Structures are given as structure tokens and as C-alpha cells.
Amino acid sequence: DWNNSPAVAYDYGRNVAVLGGSHGCFLCPTAIGQLDLATGVLRFHVGLGTGTVNGIAVDPNTHIAVTTSEDDFSVEFYDLVKGTLRQVVLPGATSQLYSGGAVAVDPVHRLFLVGQEFSSTAPSGSSIHVFDEKGNLVESLNGFDLPASPAYMALNPSRRMGYVIVTPDL
User: Fold this and answer.
1) Is residue 97 classed exposed, middle or buried when 0-12, 13-18 and 19+ CB atoms within 10 A define those classes?
2) Contact, 165 vs 158, CB < 8 A?
3) Is residue 157 classed as helix, strand or coil in its secondary structure?
4) pLDDT tens column, 109-164
5) Is 71 helix (H, G, I), strand (E, B) or coil?
6) Is pLDDT of 72 > 60?
7) Model confidence, pTM
8) 23-31 LR contacts (CB < 8 Å, sep 24+)
9) Geometric angle at alpha carbon 119, from 134 and 11, rounded to 5°
């Protein structure tokens, strides 16, 4: 049952929809599913995070999926082929205030970018944290003003640039 803000990513390397969701209750586990779009077969298992799945992305070359979860301010790494799992707390995060939001993938450089509305690595503003596919922090980019809802990020990996929706100054 993924009735609370389900998140979807597409693994075009395997023609699989990757689904993340939860019941939306505090500290309830997330669920991760794989829907084979050719056969209609759905497989799912309990995820590593707790609370709502805020963001999801999948690398279609390596079949690594990454989610962010609300209650435990963490990032979850799933190898969809091998079935291995890893959970990493966002750098400097100590509470739900520092939960990650949207996730974007750079399949060329095998990196995942995680938006964070309230930075846990800067005194103010928002951050985007860059992780490799093993869950290692590569760098934290600070000084953004991301909105409360997950800000979708669009990447152009070949030019090593990206775009993100930010809160306008009023």
C-alpha cells in the first residue's frame, strides 16, 4: 500500500518503473517496488527509510536507485539487480528538519544529487549534496534557497551543469 505521496523513477536500461512510497505515518517504513513494464510483474520489499519518500532517482546504467525519506533525514541506496541496500544519514543532519528532498541522477559520472531545504552543512539556506553510487558524500553545494516541497532538479551531465527550481525573492 503506497498511498502516501508515491514517487516514481524509470530504469530505462531494464524497462522497469521504480516506485517508492509509504503509509505516510511517522516512523513507518518505506516500500520500494519494481514494476516490469514488459510483463506487468511487480516486486516490492520494505525500504530502509522511514516516513514519506520525498525523492527518487535511478541510474539506468548501473541500476542503482536512491531515495530520500522524511523522518530519518537519510538517503537510501538500492542496487536493484543485486538486492543490496545501504542507508546514509545526510551530512551534519540531526533531526527531521534536515530531511532530503528531490533526487537527481548523473548517469555519466555515476553521481546522485540530493536537495535539502534546510542545510545541515551551512549556517543558513539550502544545500545540494552529491553522493557517489556507494553512498559516499562527494561534496555539499551550499547557498541555495530551495522551496519546502521537493525542488525538482534537471541535470545535463555531459556539460556538468544543472537546473533547480528556487524560491523567488518577493
Assistant:
1) exposed
2) no
3) helix
4) 999 999 999 999 999 999 999 999 999 999 999 988 887 766 678 888 888 888 77
5) coil
6) yes
7) 0.90
8) 24/51, 24/52, 25/51, 26/50, 26/51, 26/71, 27/51, 27/71, 27/72, 30/67, 30/69, 30/76, 31/2
9) 35
Q: Give the DSSP H/E element, type plus range, for residue 86.
A: strand 85-89
C-alpha 68/C-alpha 80 separation (Å) is 16
C-alpha cell at 160: 556538468
Which pairs from 133-138 meet CB under 8 Å and 24+ separation?
A: 133/59, 133/62, 133/64, 133/77, 134/77, 134/86, 135/75, 135/77, 135/86, 135/87, 135/88, 137/88, 137/91, 138/111
Contact 120, 134 (CB under 8 A): no
Whole-angstrom CA distances from 151 to 7, 75, 93 are: 13, 16, 19
Q: Are strands 85-89 and 126-132 parallel, antiparallel or unpaired?
A: unpaired
C-alpha–C-alpha distance, residues 73 and 67, integer Å: 11
139 bridge partner residues: 130
Q: What are phi and psi of 157, to 5 degrees?
A: -60, -35
- 169 contact partners, CB below 8 Å, separation of at least 6: none
